[in-house]
Design brief:
alpha+beta; Rossmann fold; D-amino Acid Aminotransferase, Chain A, domain 1; five-stranded parallel beta sheet; 12 helices; 25 strands; globular; binds glycine
Length: 414
């Protein structure tokens, strides 16, 4: 089987690695991919757009396209694959609005009784200020904003900063903003493989978005993640399935959204029960780097079948223990990205897996930093402690100048 994975970050490296470990031994390509993931997937760096990718896939008799990142899904990647007769694991453009348009997602949740926070939609700085009733409040840009479109504002100064970025500087475009109810509780990410109203749930995960220990400091793209079925009591998993996932799957069918792809539920466990913070139409990052090492079985065949409308749960199994993923970022992240610092130790890992997110190959064959989040190191274990200890021991073998890490991922207080 020949598979193209669309994307270039740590999530796509983790997807490629998990697919490469399938007994069916697929041949893997990544568009654009990266030099760091070339160990498992050949990068396709000269493909500028969806028509060019579809033509390349047709010429090279590709059996399956797997969407890693969301951008090309919002532009119609799956629709173009469908027209070309290439199975695609990623939803069509209309369904991808669950991620690309927060208004679409909120209206979907309201229509299908999927629990979520209250909200007001505004289209100007004045209306935004008027809609804020109290602090903390959550402000969300409606469209895609490269992970920067959400601000949890604890005071008026923070709200003004977001209002300036969106309505005055128009950093993300001309779209509207949501003023949302602030919800309190622990967050959990549940990712499903969805196909025509049926789903398989991956191991639940918790993403650590803040830069500093104790979930303090600025928001980032994720500084680490922990995955285990033991993260949540069985009754909470059942409640999430009953109150959140089942009505969502029924809604996808009722609205004829023809959803085949990963569906990410960002969930907050409030005192009133689980509520959806966001949908994403792809795997999470860094959740993928924590969850995918727990998969055993033929992941490639599973996704191939799912892309054709058939969820076949027997093709994959999940390790019942724990997985811990640690992210290494450059010194000024998330304020700025960095590049040019030599990375050492990449060949010395024995028990962990290393995923490249922001690296570049040097002329001498070594790797250097090239981005904000650079690497993720993941390890699994039967217990939380063993997974965490192995992950940190493996991380200690890696070095680049100015590396930022958190030292509390996988500790008990989360
Ligand atoms: N970890 C959050 C996301 O992938 O959107």
């Amino acid at each position: 089987m020949k598979i193209v994975i669309v994307g270039k970050g740590g999530r796509e490296h983790a997807l490629a690695r998990a697919l490469s470990e399938s007994p069916s031994r697929p041949e893997l390509f990544a568009c654009p991919g990266s030099e760091g993931m070339a160990d498992v997937a050949t990068p396709l760096t000269d493909i500028p757009d969806i028509p060019a990718l579809v033509a390349w896939m047709r010429d090279h008799e590709i059996d399956l396209c797997v969407a890693g990142e969301e951008a090309w899904l919002a532009l119609g990647l799956a629709d173009a694959c469908h027209l070309a007769g290439i199975p695609c694991f990623g939803p069509p453009k209309r369904a991808a609005q669950l991620e690309s348009s927060k208004i679409f997602a909120k209206e979907f949740m309201t229509r299908h009784q999927v629990p979520t926070g209250g909200f007001t939609v505004v289209d100007s700085a004045e209306a935004c200020r008027a809609a804020i009733q109290s602090y903390p409040t959550v402000l969300k840009y409606n469209g895609l904003a490269a992970g920067k479109g959400v601000a949890v504002c604890t005071d008026a100064a923070m709200a003004e900063e977001f209002i300036d970025m969106v309505f005055i500087q128009k950093q993300f475009g001309e779209d509207k903003v949501f003023v949302e109810e602030f919800l309190e509780g622990k967050e959990v990410s549940v990712i499903c493989a969805v196909s025509d109203g049926k789903a398989l749930y991956f191991t639940p995960a918790r993403d650590h978005k803040r830069l500093k220990n104790n979930d303090e400091g600025p928001n980032t793209g994720g500084m680490g993640a922990v995955a285990s079925r033991q993260l949540l009591p069985p009754e909470t998993i059942e409640q999430i399935q009953r109150e959140v996932i089942d009505p969502t799957l029924a809604g996808l069918v009722k609205d004829e959204l023809h959803y085949r792809g990963f569906l990410y539920f960002g969930i907050i466990l409030t005192e009133q029960g689980p509520k959806v913070l966001e949908f994403n139409c792809r795997f999470g990052d860094p959740e993928a780097q924590a969850v995918l090492p727990l998969i055993e079985g033929d992941f490639a065949e599973f996704l191939f079948q799912a892309a054709k409308g058939n969820i076949a749960p027997d093709l994959i199994q999940f390790h019942e223990g724990w997985s811990v993923c640690l992210v290494m970022a450059t010194r000024d992240y998330p304020r700025a990205s960095g590049s040019g610092d030599l990375i050492s130790g990449l060949d010395t890992l024995q028990e962990g897996r290393v995923y490249h997110a922001g690296t570049r190959k040097r002329a001498d064959g070594g790797f250097e930093t090239h981005g904000g989040r650079v690497l993720a190191v993941s390890a699994t274990g039967d217990t939380r402690e063993s997974a965490r200890d192995t992950a940190y021991a493996e991380l200690a073998k890696l070095h680049f100048d100015g590396a930022q890490i958190r030292t509390d991922i996988g500790t008990l207080h989360f």
